[in-house]
């Protein structure tokens, strides 16, 4: 059976071939080498558990999703990102996938130009071209989805990411995927409570998976935040950072919403 993830990746590869025709590998490598050095995303996220200001937030610029359709128009991604930054975000995540998420590299450029904090290129990374492209467009961090890659790809893409001075958020959904992330030496591991093969969300899944995370990685809880209580639960389960999309893009006052999420972990100790 073709999963949602498989069908997204099929489209990602088609779109990628078009971009590779327009800007060849050699050119994109040169652009990556010429861009300002990546910011330290690992430092921005590590030891979030002990942060007296509350759990770290990775705030996402996300217009649409395969599960919900259009979430928000976001005519000016740079100004949304600035609001996130002023609300205390540690990292901005930008969806650059076009077909299902209605994102683009232009969104990444706009966000990069608007903020001083690390930026995550959130896409389905399946070809080395995309890593040079991410760096050329100012990304500091990329997403590696374990379910979309075999071990050899995971290892070589993680190495390439580090060679380019970037960090990777290595996303797992199952215990086996966490073990695969750990085996390649991932330093930042996300547990996505949304299963990308079926799109089902189960926020309790984070606590089930958290005990399998290695001690020495930065722990990120991804998806499913509907309000401060969910952020507080993730933090209580030991998350250093929480990745939030929908709840922030749908909120009319994203900076305020972000502040509420950050401090939720301080007031709702378990
Ligand atoms: O909108 P939410 O439920 O807050 O989720 C954000 C983020 O975790 C989600 O967008 C996401 C997590 N991993 C992904 C991989 C690809 C695309 C999107 C995602």
The strands making up the biggest β-sheet line up spatially as 1-4-5-6-7-8-9-10
In CATH's first tier, which class applies? Answer: Alpha Beta
In the CATH hierarchy, the architecture is Alpha-Beta Barrel
Percentage of residues in DSSP E strands? 15-25%
Helix content: 40-55%
- Seen as an oligomer or otherwise, the chain set is single chain
What is the string of helix and strand elements? HHHEEEHEHEHEHEHEHEHEHH
What is the number of domains?
1
What are the segments in which pLDDT stays under 50 over at least 5 consecutive residues? none
Task: Name the bound molecules.
Answer: indole-3-glycerol phosphate
| Number of beta strands | 10
Mean pLDDT, rounded to whole units? 96
* CATH topology assignment: TIM Barrel
Principal-axis shape: globular
Distance between the termini: 41 Å
Rg of Cα set: 17 Å
Which homologous superfamily in CATH is the superfamily?
Aldolase class I
**Tally of contiguous helical segments:** 12
